[in-house]
Design goal:
OB fold (Dihydrolipoamide Acetyltransferase, E2P), 5-stranded mixed β-barrel, two-stranded antiparallel sheet, Excalibur_Ca-bd_domain
Length: about 230
C-alpha cells in the first residue's frame, strides 16, 4: 500500500474508533490511576496494559495557570493517585477523552472534588443537579478555592474564554473574602507579618498573601498560604 493511502486508512480507522468509542468501551472501567494531569483529568491503567485518559464528568476544576489550579490537582491526586478506581463512562469528549464519574470504595470522587472546594459544578454539561448544591455548600463553608480573595475566583470556563480572547474575563460573583474585610484591622497592616508562624488564622494568611503580596507564605505557588492553617 502506498504511503498516502496508508495514512488515509489510518485516519479513517481513528475516526471510526472515535465514533464508535461509546459503544465499544465497557460502561465501567476498572483500573489503577497512574497519572493526574490536573484537577479533573486522570490516566487510568486497565488490565495492566491499556491506558485511558479520563475527564471527570459533572465538574470543572481550576486550570493550572489559575489560582488554586495546582492545589486542585493535588487534591485529586490525594484522592485517587495509585489507587484502584471504577470509572463509569458516560460520554466521549471532543478531545477523545472518556468522560466518567469515578468511585473509590463507593465514594464519588467527582462529588468530593466539588464538596471540598476543588472544582465547580460544570453547568454547561451538568446532568446531576446535586453538584450545584454541593458547590454552594463548599462556597458557604469557604472550603478550597472559596478561601481565595474574591478577585481571584473565576470559573474555569470564563478563564479559558479570556485566554482565547487574549483579554480579561468577567469575574465570577463571590462573597467578599474575610481577608479583604480584615485589611484595616489592628495587626493586619502590610509589612507587619511575613512568615506563617505569625499568622493566627487562614483568613489572616490569605490577607497577607493576596492584599500584601507576601509570596513567602505560599512556597509552592498554588494560591494557598500556610497550608497547616489553610487545609
Amino acid at each position: 500500500m502506498r504511503l498516502p493511502l496508508l495514512r488515509q486508512a489510518i485516519s479513517l480507522l481513528v475516526m471510526t474508533m472515535l465514533v464508535w468509542a461509546p459503544q465499544a468501551w465497557a460502561e465501567t472501567l476498572t483500573g489503577k490511576v497512574v497519572r493526574v494531569t490536573d484537577g479533573d483529568t486522570i490516566t487510568l491503567l486497565v488490565d495492566g496494559r491499556r491506558q485511558y485518559k479520563i475527564r471527570l464528568g459533572e465538574i470543572d476544576a481550576p486550570e493550572g495557570g489559575q489560582p488554586f489550579g495546582r492545589a486542585a490537582k493535588r487534591m485529586l491526586s490525594d484522592l485517587v493517585f495509585g489507587r484502584t478506581i471504577r470509572a463509569r463512562v458516560t460520554d466521549i469528549d471532543r478531545y477523545g477523552r472518556a468522560v466518567a464519574v469515578l468511585t473509590v470504595d463507593g465514594t464519588n470522587i467527582n462529588a468530593q472534588m466539588v464538596k471540598g472546594g476543588g472544582a465547580w459544578a460544570y453547568r454547561r454539561y451538568l446532568s446531576d443537579q446535586r453538584y450545584i448544591r454541593w458547590e454552594e455548600e463548599a462556597r458557604q463553608a469557604r472550603r478550597g478555592l472559596w478561601r481565595l480573595q474574591a478577585d481571584q475566583i473565576m470559573a474555569p470556563w470564563d478563564w479559558r474564554a479570556a485566554k482565547r480572547r487574549g483579554g480579561p474575563a468577567p469575574l465570577t460573583t463571590a462573597p467578599q473574602s474575610v481577608a479583604m474585610q480584615s485589611a484595616g484591622q489592628p495587626g493586619r497592616q502590610c509589612g507587619t507579618k511575613r512568615v506563617c508562624r505569625q499568622m493566627g488564622s487562614c483568613e489572616e494568611a490569605l490577607h497577607f498573601l493576596n492584599s500584601c503580596q507576601v509570596r513567602s507564605l505560599d512556597g509552592d505557588g498554588d494560591g494557598v498560604p500556610c497550608e497547616k492553617l489553610c487545609r
